Structure formats: structure tokens, C-alpha cells
């Protein structure tokens, strides 16, 4: 016989089952996530948080998809010009006008601040290839000036930029004067779009032949000063060149390479808001901007 207690418990269980049968299913965890805010809004949030001016031009080189925020604004190039100077040396080697093994004397008078590779070589010679490596990978300032001297001075870099499809970049001075970066000074400036267009051409276009283009990419992949890499996913690499100067000016431009064959051009130029020539650099901001590009290009259109 069923006791009164068992009957009551059975009734409760049946009622619970009946209630569950009529209840709608809970939403599944696979529901799509909410879309990200517009890129311009995310960049504006970074601008306010870092009290900085930001220019960004990015291109997915496989799909052609672009991100452009303040990409026509003018910024001091600072050491990003060293990518052009080295590419111009490679172009002249390609043309037979010089060889990468040509020896260049290094004298004490050549040494400037941030010359970590050339300073120990004072009294000896360095090859043009060694100078390119020093300028690209360690941003060695004396090496950059020795490259400029070989090319014929800053106007040669401007002319090379024009030949690479960059219609705005101009180099007027030598290291280290070109890093003054006074707001409004047109000397030694570019825009994110113009500089990015030129660097894209030398790294992925036909400005250089295959062998010399590969050499430039190899040198730039070994860059030790990259800021954008901090914002890229694990397994990614870059061929990029940084630059920094007065008023917090901090730049990074180059191509990011992903493990599934992705190639993204990133041209990021920034400076601090205000009139402090000694404002600290904005290297962390460069990584955060790169992370915005990662999030945006990772979203389906």
C-alpha cells in the first residue's frame, strides 16, 4: 500500500514536471554577441583617455577593407623615414648604382644620441647593409645620417617617397633635428594615409624587385622597437618602423602578418595634446590602436 507521505511526494513531483513542460526554453549561449561600437567611437575613447591626437590608416591587403580615422592629418614622421631611406638604398643597389657591401667610415663626429650600433664601431667602417639593419632594427640615428649622406641628403628621401606613391611625406632635416615635431611645422611631416601608402608599396608592391623587397621585409621583421606588436594576437609578426619625437609624437607603420596568411597594413601616428615639448611618448597607445584594428578586421562585414 502507498502511504499518505509517498502519495503527497508523488503529487509534488508530478506538479513540478507539469510546470517544466509548459515553461519556455532558456536562451542558448550560442546567441551572437552584440556588434562592436563604430571604430571612430573607439578611437575617440582612446583619444580622450590618453589626451592624444590620433591618426590611423589600416588596410586588409587581401580583402581591401579599410579603416581610416584622421588619416589626412599631418604628423612629424620622426624615425619612420628610416624605412624609406633603407628602401632607397636597396633600390639603388637594384639599379647597380651601389652595392650593399660598400663600406662607410664611422667617425666620432657622426655619433648622436641613440646610436647603439654605430658608436662601438667608431674608427672602423660599416657596410650599407649593416647601416640599414641598424637604422631599421635599433633606430640608430648615426646610421640613419650615414644613409642620408650616401643618398644625397633629406631631399632624396622625399623624392623616393613620391616614386612610391606617397604624395605628402617630406624630409627636410637630418637626425636629430627632424624630431622636434613642433605642431604646425610642415617640415619632416606626413599623414597616416600617405606614409602607409608608400610603405605598403615598398613592402608589397613593385617599387623593389622580389629579392630586394624580401631583404627589406626581413630587416623590418627583426625590428626591436615595435609598438604595434603589443596589440596583435599571439602568432602574429610585423615588418614595421617606429618613430618618436617632441610633443609626445609616437608613430608606427608597417605590415602585420597573421598565421593564416593575413596581411594588414597599419599606419598609426599620434602626438600628445598640448604644448609640452617634453610630453612622454605614447607607445602603449599604439598597441591599443592596433588592438582596435584586430577587433574590427576580425568582425564579419
From TrEMBL:
Signal peptide residue numbers: none
InterPro entries with a match to the protein in the record: Beta-lactam/transpept-like, Beta-lactam_cat, Beta-lactam_class-A, Beta-lactam_class-A_AS, TAT_signal
Keywords linked to the UniProt accession: Antibiotic resistance, Hydrolase
Domain Beta-lactamase class A catalytic: 55-270
Reaction(s) catalysed by this chain's protein: a beta-lactam + H2O = a substituted beta-amino acid
GO BP annotations listed: beta-lactam antibiotic catabolic process; response to antibiotic
Recorded GO MF terms: beta-lactamase activity
EC number(s) per entry: 3.5.2.6
Family from the record: Belongs to the class-A beta-lactamase family.
NCBIfam families per record: bla_class_A (NF033103)
Alphabetical list of PANTHER family matching this protein: BETA-LACTAMASE, BETA-LACTAMASE-TYPE TRANSPEPTIDASE FOLD CONTAINING PROTEIN
UniProt-recorded name of the protein: Beta-lactamase
